[in-house]
Amino acid sequence: MSEPGLLARRQPDDPAPLASRAIVGLIGCIAFINVYAMQSVLPLLMADFDASPVQAGLTVGATILAVALLSPFMGLLSDAWGRKGLICASLFALVLPTLLIPLAASLNQVIALRFLQGLAVPGIVVVLMAYLAEEFQATGGVARMISTYVAGSVMGGFSGRFIAGHAAHWWGWQGAFLTLALLTLSGGLLVLWRLPRSRHFVPSRDWRSALASLRSHLGNPRLLAACAVGFCVLFSLVGSFTYVNLHLAGAPFRLSAAGLANVFTVYLLGVLVTPLAGRLIQRWGFLRTLLVALLVSSGGLLLTLLPALAPVILGLAICSSAIFVCQAATISFIAGQVNQGRSLATGLYNMSYYSGGALAAWVAGLGYESQGWSGVVALMILAQLLAGSVAALSWQRTPGRSA
């Protein structure tokens, strides 16, 4: 079957064919297999470089900061140059810094290479969001495809942490990143082969028009509110899953790198739950879905305060699954708000979203150094409360969708 055929032969009752959903999920997985992999090996990195929690956390924050900084510009490039080519080029660009990380001789070099990794990610995630909005808007399959992408990104987040932790148990954190580089290269080749070409992309190389779109987006209060919600959502996820590793590596848990990797199997629950988010959004609307998910996530965080491994793992599973539903609701909300300059709108959202994650890697570290794990939990719940407040005030009466 030719590449366009994957979309052209779509059945009327199936707005998101299985083949297309599979490749979209794979892209999400590859994009995030490297972004958070460092979390499961932070204790090893701290030992090798004699680093503090905040210093080690910068190896996570640097990648996320790079994603935030480049996202809006990648949206502009994509609107001018196209979708599939940028997605594939970005996937291959991710391989080189991943290969170089094991050769780093200092923590600063690791941080710099992690930053370079992050520069490749917007060309995947920002451009893919615009691709999905264009190719599936007419058939009503956007929400389902976005949920599939989120599920893939969840799987990538899990796989990166799980593989890195177990590989580090045998070969050190250096061997972990060599393994991830090979997986990234293999996945990029598969996407190059199987991702359908765009059929509905219309290039926009008028920079004045792009600036006009930017002004329009900055004047859209619902879009800005969604950006603020995204900031808080990733803030709570990154802060929680970065420093829970230090919490579980210490007394009374004392988990090894492999043990920490196993904890991230809670992400697999998110893979199962997130595809249902599209149905929840259709039934409840964006706002109600988001508020319920935030409440559930905060409850999960409170469970992690108990001094036993089982409730901590259960709490992490609940927290992460609910956060992924929040992400799907927010991205779907934006897709319904923006009809032009989609890549730019997605880039603005990602800039805000990943800025939240980058800030969390630092702020949550300060909370951990000051008050331990309870300080991190308090900060994350405050962020989720802020997200819910912003959405409740700004997402009401969305045209074509119940609140």
Account of the protein in words:
The protein is an all-alpha fold. Helices cover 79% and strands 0% of the residues. It is globular, with a radius of gyration of 20 Å. The termini are far apart.
Termini gap: 41 Å
Largest sheet: none
Question: In what range is the share of β-strand residues?
Answer: under 5%
Order of helices and strands: HHHHHHHHHHHHHHHHHH
Considering the chains and any ligands shown, give keywords for the structure.
403 residues; mainly alpha; globular; disordered N terminus
Q: What is this structure's SSE topology?
A:
Elements (H helix, E strand, L loop, with lengths): L4 H4 L9 H16 L8 H8 L3 H29 L2 H10 L1 H6 L6 H14 L1 H15 L5 H53 L12 H12 L2 H29 L7 H7 L3 H7 L3 H8 L1 H18 L5 H29 L4 H30 L1 H22 L9
